[in-house]
Amino acid sequence: MCLRERERERESMEKYYDVVIVGGGIAGLATALGLKRVGIRAMVLERSHELRATGAALSLFPNAWRALDALGVAHKLIPLYSAFTQGYVTDLGSGKVVQFAFSGPQDGEGMGVRPVHRKALLEALAQELPPETILFSSKLASITTKVHQDSSLAVLHMEDGTILNAKVLIGCDGVHSVVAQWLGLKAPIHSGRMAVRGLAVYPQGHGFEHRVQQFVHDALRAGFIPLNSTDVYWFIIYKSCVKGDEAPKDPVLIQKDVLENMAKDFPSTYLDVVQHTDLSTLTLTPLMFRFPLDLIFGPTCKGNVTVAGDAMHPMTPDLGQGGCAALEDAVILSRHIGNSFIKDGGIRSKGIKEALEGYVYERRWRAAGLITGSYLSGWVQQGGSSWLAKFIRDKIFYGLLYKRFFEAVDFDCGKLPAGSTVAEEN
């Protein structure tokens, strides 16, 4: 093959896009939808061969529902899931039960706190995107940059040899983000805790009241949350320094370990939930977080490249804000890019650079606060069984601070600007 033929073949494998989003999870799909709403077509690259639903379920707080409302999909999910009003934490050592209420309005604009199947959320977002927006089985190998026709481009080299050129690159590729590494962000930190999560299915109905049930015992914290009349989300969090690649993968062995070791002293109702687990939903993962100062002062954007969701601010799940914050990111990032797009009549390098810098400025302090609050919440709730740990947890945290924590996450990310419909039609 001559040099010219090789050059033509290489050029045929190159593709050009306005926006490329790496990662088809909550942050990636929500950002693609937010950009669609302002008139910008994005391409989403997803490593898996289908939508990923790792984690089974999550609770969405008022801040997430406001973001979903801005994205135009809240109405699709709200009828499927009822809002919580209260929860209970039982200390299995003493038998003491602490009741807590979920803050925020349960109806109307706030939409309350509702548990949602992760798959249902991803499907609701994906269904609103134009056909062929998500490119599955797409694995990113490396990133470079170049200038083309006076535009700065991020060049994505895929494992299959394809080269994608993007005027804007957004990394929504999770805790171990390739895009975050390219930007120079420091790697997330292991919190010293692991989480087992699963979805229990009762075909004939579970009969549980619609409320959150949590249990603490020594350094363990566990709980279960009804999603509807048949499905129950459950979790157990324990202290461990095991790395993710060292954790067992076999769901049968993980379930057995929970039943026979970790939760053997837990109530029979909890054990019954674990026994009803759909093993295809069961996961064991280390709880990671980004050190807040690394987020505040680190390189979270560079020219036309930035990150969102767990790629930007991985946090422990103790305030239930990982997915909620990702939805906030999507709306705010889409708003900044959309305003630049509308002002400049298209995607221009200078305008995009300013838009991404504005997005990072708006997000980094809030995200750092959520990371800190989540970590402290987990530290207090799994502080052990000493009288001091119980006093801090029951009297100070649940008695005084819990409501304030959730008032702090009752956040409004705002609306999206009205965009052109040209990109949606192409």
Automatic annotation (TrEMBL):
Transmembrane intervals: 16-35
Keyword Oxidoreductase: yes
Keywords, ordered alphabetically: Membrane, Monooxygenase, Oxidoreductase, Transmembrane, Transmembrane helix
Single GO MF descriptor: FAD binding
FAD-binding domain sequence ranges: 17-370
Pfam families, alphabetized: FAD_binding_3 (PF01494)
Database matches in PANTHER family: FAD/NAD(P)-BINDING OXIDOREDUCTASE FAMILY PROTEIN, OS04G0423100 PROTEIN
The family this protein is said to belong to: Belongs to the 3-hydroxybenzoate 6-hydroxylase family.
Protein name in the entry: FAD-dependent urate hydroxylase
Biological classification of the source: Eukaryota, Viridiplantae, Streptophyta, Embryophyta, Tracheophyta
